[in-house]
Amino acid sequence: MGGDPSMAATGTATVTVGNAFRQYEVAEGWAKLPATITLGYTHGVEVDSAGNVYIFHMNKPSVVKFDSEGNYLSSWGDEYESRAHGFLLHQEDGEEFFYLTDMSGRVVKTTLDGKVLLAIETPDLPDIYDADRKFIPTDVAVAPNGDIYVADGYGQHYIHQYNQEGALLRSWGGAGSDIGKLNCPHGISVDLRHSEPELYVADRGNHRIQVFTLDGQYKRIIDENMDAPCSFYYHGDEVIFPDLHSRVTILDKNDQLIAHLGEDQQAYKQQGWPDLPLDYFRTNRFSSPHGVCFDADGNIYVAEWTQHGRITKLLRK
Length: 317
Prior knowledge:
This protein is mainly β. Helices cover 0% and strands 44% of the residues. It has strands at 5-7, 13-18, 23-26, 42-47, 53-57, 63-66, 72-76, 84-92, 95-102, 106-110, 116-120, 139-142, 148-151, 158-162, 168-173, 185-191, 198-203, 208-212, 218-222, 233-235, 238-243, 247-251, 257-261, 289-294, 300-304, 310-316. The strands form six sheets. Strands 1-2-3-26-25-24 form a six-stranded antiparallel β-sheet, with no helix packed on it. Strand 13 and strand 14 (158-162) form a beta hairpin. 42% of the residues are buried. GO terms for molecular function: zinc ion binding. Keywords: Repeat. NHL repeats lie at residues 137-165, 173-215.
């Protein structure tokens, strides 16, 4: 169940989310933006090994960096304005890189300050893509061997697997609701919580998660305790995902529910959603969560898909 406001024993007002098993305190007013930057739709959020927090949003500059206290540090990425979507920070041989999905039809690997190291364009698959059938990637994942997986969530509903140099290895999926078919494969991630890596796909339009082997073989479906899963983030044995229909969900190692956070089952039913008036939003409720991550201390950052942009930090209690 969603959390409710509470009073700490000291008498200091706090706001919490969670349930009897898991609670977080909302760090109100966490992000301190300079007057020169206005957030647009906030799609992605990541934390680096130093605890710095990066936001990927649809105004410019599109990547904004904060320290863990929410103090603004730097920004870059004007070229992703209006096209920013999936956002992955990945460690490779002791270094950290971003993988960004650009809805103009590109996936790019960059340094933490935005230098492009690799670009993946529309796959050369004429049976799938042409002038009318566009490639519109929404998320990216990287396997332990360096293979790159791209979810074409807003295009033709395929998953494409590449090697670390960007050469296409295989593709699977296509539009549909049958096993192995996809309807807006919006998010993708490599799950390392079990004896062998697995590929989790947020099959959002089908209101489910599909699990595949790393070579694209179907394994199982997860379709409980979710409505419109967007993406994934792992912390220890837990997986967390933003459910676009107004909550954040945490599952255990066996994909059983631990908690829904900030649930508002009225938000996505409002006229005009997700572009709701500012006075609708409540500190301890989510409207349209789109990106989420943990930091090393188990705190959570949530980015919401709303015209005003919204970033929430939840402190583990």
